[in-house]
C-alpha cells in the first residue's frame, strides 16, 4: 500500500513539473519587451531640436541713426538671447550699403544695447553678408537656440480600455506628462546634458557654517512685510 502511495505521489510530482514546464514554454505573448525595460516616461522621450533665431533691421537710406522702434526690437532680441541663446550673438553687417554710415552706426548701437543687457563683447561674433551689387541687405542679428519636441501622443479614442487580456499599461501612459514637461522646460538644451555649475562662494559658505556652529538661524532674515503669515486685511 505504501508503495502505491509513493508511486502516486511521484506521478503527481512529475505531472506538476510537466505543467510548469509547459507554462514556461508558453508564456503570455501580450507583454511587449519594452514593457519590461524602463518606465512609461522612458518610452515617451522629449526630443530636442536646434534652430537659429534671426532679426533683420532694415537700414534707412536717408537716416542717420536707428529708429526707437528698431532699437526696441534689438533690445528684445538681446533679452531673448540672454534667456535662451547658446553660442555667440552674431551681428552681421551688409557687405555694401546705400547708407554705410548708418550701417556702421547700427552695429555700434546693437553692441551697446547688448552690453547694457549683460552680453560681454567676447560673446559677440561679427560677420558680414550680401554682395557688392545688392544695396538693400539689412543688418542681421542671430543666435542658436533649442526647442523641446513633445512626444506624439496617440489619441485616447484609439485605445481599447475594455481589453484586459494583460495588465500592461496603455501606450498613452506618461505621454501627457512628457508633453506638459516639454512645454515647461525653460532651456531645452539642458536635456542634452548638465550645464556647468557656477563657481562656489567660499565667503558665503563660511558665514553660514559659522552661524550653524553658533546655533543661529542660517536662513535669510525677513521683515514683517515679507512674512509668510496669512494677511488679516480681509476679515473672516
What does the model show?
The structure is a single chain. The protein has 5 helices and 4 strands, in the order H-E-H-E-H-E-E-H-H. A 4-stranded mixed sheet has the order 1-4-2-3. The chain starts with a helix and ends in a 23-residue tail after the last helix.
Structure summarized in a few sentences:
By secondary structure, this protein is an alpha+beta fold.
Please give a handful of descriptors for the protein shown:
236 residues, alpha+beta, 60s Ribosomal Protein L30, Chain: A, four-stranded mixed beta sheet, 5 helices, 34% helix, 16% strand, Pilus assembly protein CpaD
What coarse outline follows from CA principal-axis ratios? flat
List how many beta strands DSSP finds.
Answer: 4
- Helix fraction, binned, reads 25-40%
CATH superfamily of the domain at 47-149: OmpA-like domain
Identify the CATH architecture of the domain at 47-149.
2-Layer Sandwich
Mean pLDDT: 77
How would you characterize the largest beta sheet?
Answer: 4 strands, mixed
Give the amount of beta strand, in percent: 15-25%
What is the fold's blueprint, element by element?
Elements: H1 2-25, E1 47-57, H2 68-84, E2 86-94, H3 100-116, E3 124-129, E4 139-149, H4 175-184, H5 202-213
Amino acid at each position: 500500500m505504501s508503495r502505491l502511495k509513493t508511486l502516486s505521489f511521484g506521478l503527481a510530482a512529475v505531472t506538476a513539473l510537466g505543467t510548469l514546464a509547459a507554462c514556461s514554454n508558453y508564456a503570455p505573448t501580450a507583454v511587449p519587451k519594452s514593457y519590461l525595460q524602463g518606465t512609461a516616461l522612458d518610452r515617451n522621450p522629449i526630443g530636442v531640436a536646434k534652430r537659429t533665431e534671426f532679426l533683420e533691421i532694415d537700414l534707412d537710406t536717408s537716416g542717420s541713426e536707428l529708429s526707437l522702434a528698431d532699437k526696441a526690437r534689438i533690445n528684445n532680441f538681446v533679452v531673448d538671447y540672454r534667456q535662451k541663446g547658446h553660442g555667440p550673438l552674431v551681428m552681421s553687417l551688409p557687405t555694401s550699403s546705400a547708407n554705410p554710415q548708418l550701417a556702421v552706426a547700427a552695429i555700434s548701437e546693437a553692441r551697446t544695447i547688448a552690453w547694457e543687457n549683460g552680453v560681454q563683447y567676447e560673446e559677440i561674433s561679427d560677420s558680414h553678408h550680401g554682395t557688392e551689387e545688392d544695396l538693400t541687405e539689412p543688418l542681421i542679428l542671430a543666435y542658436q537656440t533649442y526647442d523641446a519636441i513633445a512626444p506624439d501622443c496617440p489619441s485616447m479614442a484609439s485605445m481599447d480600455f475594455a481589453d484586459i487580456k494583460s495588465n500592461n499599461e496603455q501606450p498613452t501612459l506618461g505621454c501627457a506628462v512628457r508633453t506638459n514637461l516639454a512645454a515647461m522646460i525653460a532651456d531645452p538644451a539642458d536635456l542634452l546634458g548638465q550645464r556647468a555649475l557656477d563657481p562656489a562662494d567660499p565667503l558665503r559658505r563660511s558665514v553660514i557654517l559659522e552661524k550653524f556652529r553658533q546655533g543661529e538661524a542660517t536662513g535669510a532674515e525677513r521683515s514683517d512685510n515679507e512674512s509668510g503669515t496669512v494677511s488679516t486685511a480681509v476679515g473672516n
